[in-house]
Amino acid sequence: MDNQQATPRSPIALYLSLPILSWAFYDFANTIFSSNINTIFFPFYTDEVIGTSLARQQVASTFVSYANAVASIFLAIFSPLFGVWIDRTGYKKLFIVWFTSISIVATFMMGVFGGIQSDVLMWGVPLSYALVVVSFVIAKFFFNSSLVFYDSMMSDLGTKQEMPLISGFGVAVGYIGTIVGLLVYILVSEGDFYKAFIPTAILYLLFSLPLFFINKDTPIPKHERIKGSFFEGYKEIIKTFKDMKSHKPVFTFMIAYFFINDAIATTIAMMAIYATVIVGFSSGQFIILYLVSTISAVIGSFAFGYIAKRIGARNSVSIVAVLMIVALFIAVFAFDQWMFWIAGSMIGISLGSMWVTSRTLIVELTPENKRGQFFGLFAFSGKVSSIIGPAMYGTITYQLQDYGPLASRIALSTLIIMTVIGLIIHLSLRKDSIAKTT
Fold first, then answer.
1. Domain range for residue 36?
2. What's 122's DSSP letter?
3. Residues with Cβ < 8 Å from 11, sequence gap 6 or more?
4. Is residue 6 part of a domain?
């Protein structure tokens, strides 16, 4: 969209714009996948299959964290190239459709493999579980890959001034999708958590369709495209890194985001097992807790869209990081369930709000002709931290498995340190440096 649009749209007109509404519904769709598969039912299924004792429950945490780390390794390799692809071709929706479709098929296959009964072992675990893990890695990789294109699409939907509201609206609608996705729990309330995978795949597809059919690409004419193979895109990335001084603010933020996202990604991946195994929630209680956290995320997403518009994305990110630090501190020392209710609500606000504010700040900090590349590097920063965080968490729980629940509390406490480091780096991002880029 023309960033010099003469008449600013009201929030209602903005939210009811068909391209923005269909774009937001894709957030609705992919959040169903993220919450049902990544946060809830894959960890529950893992604990059901692997966690047959206190020590084995820590091993289950290790499997979940390592599976997340493997998916992130592949994304860290390819996500910078996806950004270059965007800048070279202008195609965004095209790749969203392809990558989402592959993710949906892999999610469906998780349900198929989970239903297989076999005594055959692979990697020391049942073959059916091993196949579910492989399918999970594929589904998560392509899910996250699609987000590089989806996030970059946001800048086409409105002016820079409208970005905080558009971003907040998308995230809020996405978390409403979480509530719809939780209806799948009705099918698995008595166990057999693999039965949640196929219904999740169907919902993921259904709510992706508006973006598939309504939003349009604006491809760069072929005669204007930079020639070269896909992997030659690394040369452009290296060139951007060499020119880092010209883009210092955005690189500073990406380093800060690396540490903050380390805490966020690991919390998302481990929240279900931590709440049930360590704090003592039943699966049904956790679903209610997650519902409350989701409602908190919806409220936080809308609120921080307006907060970011009023005080700026930089200050908003700082506030969210502080909220995350306090929430993690409470979670580490949560010996009674009421403490984790507080932590869960604060984590919900933090997760939704960080997504709103970070995307907005990337748009503020980046030149339009390199925005796709920087969104790719932004995803790269996030996914490298998504390797380190879960891998570190899993290693701690595995090495300290004989200490039972204490192992998970120690692992979670490392996330506080990561968030504090990220906040300190982020605070070095000066307001005047942001002003120069906008």
1. 16-214+237-437
2. E
3. 165
4. no
